[in-house]
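Re: the 162-residue chain
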Amino acid sequence: MKALRSDTRHRQSSSTQEREGVTTVEFAIITMVFLTVVFGMVEMSLVIFRYHIVSHAARQGARLAIVRGELTTQQRRWDPQVLGSTHTALLSANDPISNALRPSTGGVIPEQTTVTIAWPDTTNKLGSPVQVEVATTFRPFVTFLFSAEWNLNARSTMLIEH
């Protein structure tokens, strides 16, 4: 009778150990999947946030450009005859357009962000269009989920008002 009881205890403890091992493996798999989903959501949130900043900067640049037309004083004017019909600069550059847009772009890296302003009619007369494009790159920190680098750009076109 004594031998029967010890055999039953041995079977129960080995079954419990096997179950604990299975639970550990299940926990590891579920944790990996859960953390992948969480990091993916954080990464996508950062992409959406950066794109929002880029699109806001393009819109803000166009708003600034439409009030710096031919009727503006010479010091404040963004003139296509001086800057060229298309002007491209890094956001970190020390030029009037980059300096005006830099406060609107918190959250992007200025050295990786370009600002392009174009006057399709090559003039800054009233009613002429002006187009501002802001472009930057985004490098995800979870590279096994997403590609190595994303290009984010936004363009805004408005008519010169002043």
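The longest strand covers residues 129-138.
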